[in-house]
Amino acid sequence: MSGCKARVRKNRAIQKEFIESVIASLKREILEEKRIFNAEHNERNLAPFVERVLRDRMDKQIAIMETQKSTNFNNGNTKLNSNNNNNNTNNSNNNNNKQDTQYSAMDIQNSTMDSKNSTTDPHNSTLDPQNAMDQRNSMSDRELLHEMVSLLNAGFETVMFMTSLTLILLAIHPSVQEEVYNELQDVLGDSPDSAPTYDQLQRLDLLTRVIKETMRLFPAAPVIARSAPYEVQCGDYTIPAGASIAIFIYGLHRHPQLWNNPNQFDPDRFLPSQSSHRNPSGYVPFSLGPRGCIGSKYAMLQMKTTISTILRRYKILPGDKCKSLQDIRFEFGMTMRSLPGNDIRIEPR
Question: Quick one: where's region Disordered (predicted)?
Answer without folding.
Answer: 66-100, 112-136
